[in-house]
């Protein structure tokens, strides 16, 4: 089977909610990373077969196939198509999978994969609010088929995070220690310049150059302990959840033929890609089953993986995954995760993969495994091999 290679990966700095990127149109946000990717790689944009971008809540400025719009806003050729996909939090990781599958099938040679999300402009609950206007509490709540299968239960990521903390006996204190470590690692990574290669600074309308992730905080266990839980008597607080934010990210996926034809040097190879589903009411347990499946398919063990990225939607998700699979936390999210760096939903998958790629190169590791929980009880797994 033909191989799929990562040529380069780029992202915007992550802007906090209401921060530096809040007023940026979603298409322009996506265009920024796409244009930077084309410029950095030197690839002929006319040779790109497709542009696949993840985005959730595709209403307002994110509607109308924003992947296609972002490519055009970047000033790139009209004949190159684009498609927007929604696998919830894993949307841009799935974009990489579709891009790699196109290359591995032999039907495509160069594909841009990425994602974008302006959560300041379009809140995560925006689609839910539209549904509620027409009498639906969630997009699927009134489906007779759904109710017949799962009953009249509230499906919520917050409920799932609480359920996971209870089932795996993860205390609030342990989650807060994990969250503090995320902020500490992220701030250290910024101070050491670990993100500089992957970030393409954004020049704002007032001429300010925005180049550093805004979400990491100086915090403490004492500050976290003072927060009220999201549910009465619960363990989950805002401190142990990912931050709402704005960003875009993009990668160039290429075939071996494209590498030769365009004089491109690959940075990594896609070693494995898969996606699995789990109980949609539990929702956030998907990474456990998906990682088990990926390791079984590849014959690799946890010990064979040098670095892991498991998206920090909530601390309980990563800790339960780590406990179940015996993944050492000192190899997980070593530069911080969504709790500190933010989770710009549609852009997160390729944001994380850019960070994973750069960290493998920095440390000399061979394999990196990435997974993330997704709406509907799903999870993608990608294993990349540094070249």
Automatic annotation (TrEMBL):
<keyword id="KW-0012">Acyltransferase</keyword>
<dbReference type="Pfam" id="PF02803">
    <property type="entry name" value="Thiolase_C"/>
</dbReference>
<feature type="active site" description="Proton acceptor">
    <location>
        <position position="343"/>
    </location>
</feature>
<dbReference type="InterPro" id="IPR020617">
    <property type="entry name" value="Thiolase_C"/>
</dbReference>
<keyword id="KW-0808">Transferase</keyword>
<protein>
    <submittedName>
        <fullName>Acetyl-CoA C-acetyltransferase</fullName>
        <ecNumber>2.3.1.9</ecNumber>
    </submittedName>
</protein>
<feature type="active site" description="Acyl-thioester intermediate">
    <location>
        <position position="89"/>
    </location>
</feature>
<dbReference type="InterPro" id="IPR016039">
    <property type="entry name" value="Thiolase-like"/>
</dbReference>
<dbReference type="GO" id="GO:0003985">
    <property type="term" value="F:acetyl-CoA C-acetyltransferase activity"/>
</dbReference>
<feature type="domain" description="Thiolase N-terminal">
    <location>
        <begin position="5"/>
        <end position="256"/>
    </location>
</feature>
<feature type="active site" description="Proton acceptor">
    <location>
        <position position="373"/>
    </location>
</feature>
<feature type="domain" description="Thiolase C-terminal">
    <location>
        <begin position="265"/>
        <end position="386"/>
    </location>
</feature>
<dbReference type="InterPro" id="IPR020613">
    <property type="entry name" value="Thiolase_CS"/>
</dbReference>
<comment type="similarity">
    <text>Belongs to the thiolase-like superfamily. Thiolase family.</text>
</comment>
<dbReference type="Pfam" id="PF00108">
    <property type="entry name" value="Thiolase_N"/>
</dbReference>
<dbReference type="InterPro" id="IPR020616">
    <property type="entry name" value="Thiolase_N"/>
</dbReference>
<dbReference type="InterPro" id="IPR002155">
    <property type="entry name" value="Thiolase"/>
</dbReference>
């Amino acid at each position: 089977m033909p191989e799929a290679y990562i040529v380069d990966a780029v992202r915007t700095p992550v802007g906090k909610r209401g921060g530096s990127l809040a007023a940026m149109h979603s298409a322009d946000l996506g265009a920024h990373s796409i244009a930077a990717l084309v410029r950095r790689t030197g690839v002929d944009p006319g040779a790109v077969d497709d542009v696949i971008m993840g985005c959730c809540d595709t209403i307002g400025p994110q509607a109308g196939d924003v992947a296609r719009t972002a490519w055009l806003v970047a000033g790139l050729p009209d004949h190159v198509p684009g498609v927007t996909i929604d696998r919830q939090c894993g949307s841009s990781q799935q974009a990489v999978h579709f891009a790699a599958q196109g290359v591995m099938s032999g039907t495509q040679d160069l594909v841009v994969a990425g994602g974008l999300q302006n959560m300041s402009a379009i809140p995560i609950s925006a689609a839910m609010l539209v549904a509620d206007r027409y009498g639906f509490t969630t997009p699927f709540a009134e489906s007779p088929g759904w109710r017949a299968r799962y009953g009249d239960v509230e499906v919520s990521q917050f409920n799932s995070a609480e359920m996971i903390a209870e089932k795996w006996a993860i205390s609030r204190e342990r989650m807060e220690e994990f969250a503090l470590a995320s902020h500490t690692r992220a701030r250290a990574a910024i101070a050491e310049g670990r993100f500089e290669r992957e970030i393409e600074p954004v020049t704002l309308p007032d001429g300010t150059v925005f180049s550093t992730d805004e979400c990491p905080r100086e915090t403490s266990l004492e500050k976290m302990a003072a927060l009220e839980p999201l549910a009465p008597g619960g363990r989950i607080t805002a401190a142990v959840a990912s931050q709402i934010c704005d960003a875009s990210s993009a990668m160039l996926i290429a075939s071996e033929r494209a590498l030769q034809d365009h004089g491109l040097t690959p940075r990594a190879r896609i070693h494995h890609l898969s996606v699995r589903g789990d109980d949609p009411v539990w929702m956030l347990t998907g990474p456990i089953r998906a990682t088990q499946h990926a390791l079984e398919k590849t014959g690799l063990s946890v010990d064979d993986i040098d670095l892991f990225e498991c998206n920090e939607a909530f601390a309980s998700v990563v800790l339960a995954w780590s406990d179940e699979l015996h993944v050492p936390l000192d190899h997980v999210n070593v530069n911080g995760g969504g709790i500190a760096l933010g989770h710009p939903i549609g852009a997160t998958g390729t944001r994380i993969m850019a960070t994973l790629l750069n960290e493998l190169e920095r440390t000399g590791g061979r394999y990196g495994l990435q997974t993330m929980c997704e709406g509907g009880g799903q999870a993608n797994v990608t294993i990349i091999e540094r070249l």
